[in-house]
Amino acid sequence: MINETIDKLARMLAESVPDGLRSVREDLESNFRSVLQAGLGKMDLVSREEFEVQEAVLARTRAKLKGLEDRLDKLEHEPAKKKTTRKKPAKKKAVRKKAAK
Fold this sequence. Notes:
By secondary structure, the chain is an all-alpha fold. It contains four helices and no strands. 81% of the residues lie in helices and 0% in strands.
């Protein structure tokens, strides 16, 4: 697909050349194509397919992270609730002493 795009751009550039240079149009189109390929080759580009795959991976990772954050929040607040409902250890000892008598 990139080669098709490069060919299309090179053709468009060659067609935009003034009338006096139309005789060298094929050479210019070839040179435009080479320059575009070299320039794009130096760039760190990914295909649309690769981009979409990484986008899906990121979406799944974000969803998993959100779930883990929710779970952590729940676990952090859960012990606080348990502490308020617990009986004090001193009362348990007193109950044990009465049972032993």
